[in-house]
Design a protein that fits this description.
Blueprint: E1 3-4, H1 5-12, H2 16-24, E2 31-33, E3 36-39, H3 41-50, H4 53-56, H5 75-82, E4 83-88, H6 93-103, H7 112-125, E5 129-131, E6 134-135, E7 151-161, E8 171-178, H8 182-195, H9 199-206, H10 211-227
Parallel strand pairs: 4-7, 6-8
Antiparallel strand pairs: 1-3, 2-3, 5-6, 7-8
Helix pairs in contact: 3-8, 5-10, 6-7
Length: about 230
């Protein structure tokens, strides 16, 4: 817990009143120690990526140093392990995640009930909504150790649902990420966030494009990033 409220204000370059309100509302991950708010650098890093603040605000590079063109994880490789799923039913976040887990391809070493509990535990801390109708559920701590088992599952919901996103928009698509370590996890989140700022990609999601079209699009982006 090495960051204080003033550090977050400086990082986000927002009025202290705004930042404090978000903290008190539970929108920013924090801990109250000795009557003072303290923040985990890694959790703030993830929160910024999830909420696209790196691209929408002049966020200090002291903490956020990721950029989509410098990352080494493969979207396509993750997606091949996870898969794309359509028509996920559910009237609440917990129902949606439960139904996603029941359909997802997961490693043999991971029990579905353990994965479900891990995803719901993370959501109970703070919603993983990215904005623009996207959420990125993931375990708080890695539950797999082998990078060959890392996965990305894209789950299209049958009906949009209130996910507690900062932009107030209901969620229509989940990206469920299973990474082997925190660094690769943040890299994947950063790439997904980058893609979701692309109108062409968002149109593919909104139109529920077929799995081949989505996979080929992501493959083209992987190639672009490799070439730099």
């Amino acid at each position: 817990m090495n960051l204080k409220l003033k550090d977050i204000v400086e990082l986000l370059q927002l009025p202290e009143k705004t930042v404090k309100t978000w903290v008190e509302q539970g929108k920013i991950p924090s801990y109250k120690i000795g009557g003072q708010y303290r923040f985990s650098e890694s959790e703030i890093n993830e929160w910024i990526i999830n909420n696209k603040l790196k691209d929408n605000l002049n966020v200090s590079e002291k903490i956020i140093e990721l950029s989509a063109g410098k990352l080494h994880v493969s979207l396509t490789g993750f997606l091949e392990n996870g898969g794309i799923y359509y028509g996920i039913e559910g009237n609440s976040v917990s129902e949606i995640i439960n139904n996603c887990v029941n359909r997802m391809a997961i490693p043999e070493t991971v029990h579905r009930n353990v994965l479900l509990e891990s995803l719901l535990e993370r959501e109970s801390m703070m919603p993983t909504a990215l904005g623009k109708g996207i959420a990125i559920p993931h375990p708080r701590n890695p539950i797999i150790t082998d990078v060959e088992n890392e996965s990305l599952s894209i789950c299209f919901l049958a009906n949009e649902i209130d996910y507690g996103a900062l932009d107030g928009k209901d969620v229509h698509t989940l990206f469920i990420v299973l990474s082997a370590n925190p660094k690769r996890h943040l890299e994947m989140l950063s790439k997904i966030s980058f893609l979701c700022q692309n109108d062409e990609f968002m149109n593919l999601l909104k139109s529920r494009a077929d799995s081949h079209t989505i996979t080929e699009y992501m493959k083209s982006k992987d190639i672009e990033w490799i070439k730099g």
